[in-house]
Amino acid sequence: MGQNDMNNTNKIDQYRRRLLGGSAAAVAGLALAPGLILNTVQAKPAADAVSSKNRWGLLIDTTKCADGCSDCVTACNTEHGLRKIDHGLSESKSEAITSQWIRNVTLKNKSTGHTVNMPVMCQHCENPPCVDVCPTGASFKRDDGIVLVDKHICIGCRYCMMACPYKARSFIHEALTDQLAVAPRGKGTVESCTLCVHKVDNGDGTTACAEACTHGAITFGDLNDKSSLISKKLEMSGGRQLRAELGLNTGVRYQGL
After folding, report:
1. In what order do the strands lie in the sheet with 252-255?
2. Which of 35, 50, 183, 197 is most buried, by CB atoms within 10 Å?
């Protein structure tokens, strides 16, 4: 590394420390909604700390995704209190600017005409670009592989949105009310799929999208556990990463692409 690169790196580190020591401290007690304060970013009890022993992820079998089905999207919206906001615009425009943590995507092979329908969400990368570019440390990855956003130190710069190759993050433009305790949200911050971290930490063993999928297209589990159903399915039939060439080692894998 050259001298200029080292100087630039030091400046970035100093900038992050100033923000973490200043801006973050100033908003440490910020209420994200009336009566709702997020004081910590880790829900598990101290006696049962998050560990790299686990690597939580999803396996999506696109051959089982039914045309027109949006059960996973509806379940995610309900679980986390995501609602369409009335902006006085047309239905299509209002829908486009509403936060979505999971969305249905249709891929079409131009050569063969073959189409695939599948849900896309935060891919919970082992090497997440969103974390790399975040100047405050608001975007972070837990030891168990879940990528989250700490709303108290997110400054709304949206660098993470630009860095995400999956377009999986949304920005909250409006003040929000009637939030759920399991999914605190705040105006001027970025958000995305949390892999239902509250359910993971409660030991539920599933996510809202996987639980709602009546077609058996979504499997949740521990990628580090060879005896888990998700690992057995991957061993038997394999699974592909979206944008595998980026080397991000995603926690979400797909079959049937």
Report:
1. 218-222, 56-61, 252-255
2. 197
DSSP 168-196: --EE--S---S--TTS---TT-EE----S
Q: How many CA atoms lie within 13 A of 197 on its CB side?
A: 24
Q: Is 141 helix (H, G, I), strand (E, B) or coil?
A: strand
Under-70 pLDDT residues of the chain:
1-48, 84-98
pTM assigned to the model? 0.79
Domain hosting residue 122, numbered range: 3-255
What the block records as the tokens of 14 is: 């100093």
Alpha carbon distance 175, 136 (integer Å): 22
Q: What angle do CA 212, 216, 222 make, to 5 degrees?
A: 85
Reported as a single tens digit per residue, the pLDDT across 178-197 is 888 899 898 999 999 999 99
Burial class (CB in 10 A: 0-12, 13-18, 19+), 21: exposed
pLDDT one-digit tens code per residue, 140-182: 999 999 999 999 999 999 999 999 999 999 999 888 888 888 9
At position 91, the amino acid (one-letter code) is: E
CA atoms within 13 A on the CB side of 250: 24
Q: Give dist(CA 2, CA 196) in Å, integer.
A: 43
Q: How many domains does the chain have?
A: 1
- Encoded tokens for 157: 């710069």
Q: Give the per-residue pLDDT at 126.
A: 97
CATH number for the domain that contains residue 187: 3.30.70.20
